[in-house]
Amino acid sequence: MPLIDDFLLQYNIGQVLLFLFVLSVLAAIPLGSRKVLSLNAITFGLLFLVTPASMAPLPFKFLGIALLVVAPVLFVTARA
């Protein structure tokens, strides 16, 4: 556990959430569903937005707002 703690202390919560977002998008691509991708983006947009500013810098808040604007449009335009 100390090895994992030493590794994770170098990063803030925003960077960890961004890494998890990229991994989840890569995992959802083989499903071929834009609705799944948009729901994923909405979820991470909310996570970026509600993360306290002391834990994640301001650009991650802007990323959350952008995801919350773009993802519902993607969801509405998706067919399956």
UniProtKB/TrEMBL annotation:
InterPro entries: DUF8006. It comes from the Archaea. Residues 2-79 form the DUF8006 domain. Keywords: Membrane, Transmembrane, Transmembrane helix. The chain crosses the membrane at residues 12-29, 36-54, 60-78. This is DUF8006 domain-containing protein.
